[in-house]
Amino acid sequence: MSTSFTINVPATSANIGPGFDVMGLSLSLYLTVKARVDPQQPTTPTNISLVYEGENSSGLSLDPNTNLITRTSLYVLACSGHQGFPHPTTVAVNNRIPLGRGLGSSGAAVVAGVLLANAIASLNLSQQRMLDYCLMIEHHPDNVAAALVGGFVASYLIDVDRSGNIPESEADPAVVQQKQREQMAAAADDSVKLPPDNI
């Protein structure tokens, strides 16, 4: 039995006024990802079949290991102990965001990839943890925060020294379980690089 879901990620405008790399605004122009999970289909190493539709799709990679959306999803899944998508999945992308025009197309792709991984493997990541993953790949918090949260946002990157035995500010059991899965995945595969907490 197959299941389907749709992810819409907005375009963004950033560097607003004096808020260079800080302020961002989501727009009413979307990258849409439709995923259909079908466990009855034959498996592949990544379990991803990727198709693009729309005017901003020419020249984009259909290889799940190089496409920004699916590469981001595979990274998040690897950090959670999954090797590829759990079940064969068709990912259909309709990108209405112009590429290379300052509307956050790469940020939207990264956010879509994190949301896709979270949904496809039922990771139940918090919004903050999803932002952490986004910022490991796209180092512009103004774009990805606006795309993930929506609306008008102000955000910035900080360097945080997490060395030593510093307790978490909130001991949420779901967060603890996610961190344990991430640590086990990193221990099992040296190529997995986890994002730091609260970038």
Question: How do the strands and helices of this protein lay out in sequence?
Answer:
Layout lengths: L2 E12 L8 E15 L10 E6 L14 H12 L9 E7 L9 H16 L6 H11 L3 H9 L2 E3 L18 H16 L11
Helix pairs in contact: 1-2, 2-3, 2-4, 3-4
Short description:
It is built from 5 helices and 5 strands; from the N terminus they run βββαβαααβα. The chain has helices at 68-79, 105-120, 127-137, 141-149, 173-188, and strands at residues 3-14, 23-37, 48-53, 89-95, 152-154.
Describe the structure.
With 199 residues, this protein is of the alpha+beta class. Helices cover 32% and strands 22% of the residues. The protein has 5 helices and 5 strands, in the order βββαβαααβα. The protein has helices at 68-79, 105-120, 127-137, 141-149, 173-188, and strands spanning 3-14, 23-37, 48-53, 89-95, 152-154. Strands 1, 2, 3, 4 and 5 form a 5-stranded mixed β-sheet that branches. β1 (3-14) and β2 form a beta hairpin. α3 (127-137) runs antiparallel to α4. The longest helix is centred in the middle third of the chain and has 16 residues, at 105-120. Residues 161-171 have low confidence and may be disordered.
